[in-house]
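User: Hello! I'm new to structural biology and keep hearing that structure can be predicted from sequence alone. Could you demonstrate with Transposase? Please show me the input and the output so I can see what each looks like.

Assistant: Of course. The first part below is the input, the amino acid sequence of Transposase. The second part is the output, the predicted structure written as tokens.
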Amino acid sequence: MDVESVAVELYGLRPSEFTAARDAYVVEARKAGDKRLAAAVAALRRPTVAAWTAGLLARNRPKEAQRLVRLGEALRAAHRTLDAERLRKLSHDQHVVIGELARTARTLAAEAGQSVSDSALYEVEQILHAVLADADVAAQWSGGRLAKAPDTVSGFTGLEPSPGAAPPRPARAARPDGSSTEHARPPQRDADGQAERARRGRVEAARAESAETRAEAERLEAARAAAQDRLDRAADAVKAAEEDLRAAKERLVTARASSAAEAAGLREAGRAATTARARAETAARKVEELTHRER
């Protein structure tokens, strides 16, 4: 048993099953004396519903997952080279692909018995956007070990244009006479829109996390109540067994006393029988003596 194989199994379970299974592996590792493995397994975090749902794609739809990873690589390459035309086409492709994959992930989750709310589905889409924008997130997601949505990624941060790359040409806006002029989208409006979308994403993620936390607390409370009920029944069974034991001891004492009395009576009867036989023998001898004298 190693942490990688354990992680593969744990992150394949539904989020509600994760904690109990992880803790069982920790106990097993400790019993085996492997403290390092126990600590590594204990450090594995329970995935949110959104992260687990996104991970289903990597585990159950590897071809589609690789398609998304390759699209992210192409987008990052186009960003480095400032290839505006390719960026526009790939940006269109990413929205189509992410929409399809998010719906597929929701279906896979339903087949596994896990419902996915609209807010969780939105978070799944944000995770897939982060996979496109960040190679590290893509690697973690591809391995099926994403525990939560990464920090909101706005654009392709951290990617510097390649030396000598030409800046992208701005979009052309048509004039009334049919000619065109250079016109770029207001950068502040784009920034404000991205910030608002990021804020909504954080709010929805926080709501989803809060709902999951409440559900987990309710599950733990139900488990505690069930455990208390089992403990109460066990205490009642112990009490009944103790009462049965006391009654059995009393019956044993009575039986022993009765047995002792019967044994004493038997001994007394034996002695009386012995005495009676002796008397009978004495009487018989006297009769025989008297008979001889008369002759």
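User: So the tokens describe the shape?

Assistant: Right, they're a compact way of writing down the 3D structure. Reading them back into a model, for example: The longest strand covers residues 172-174.
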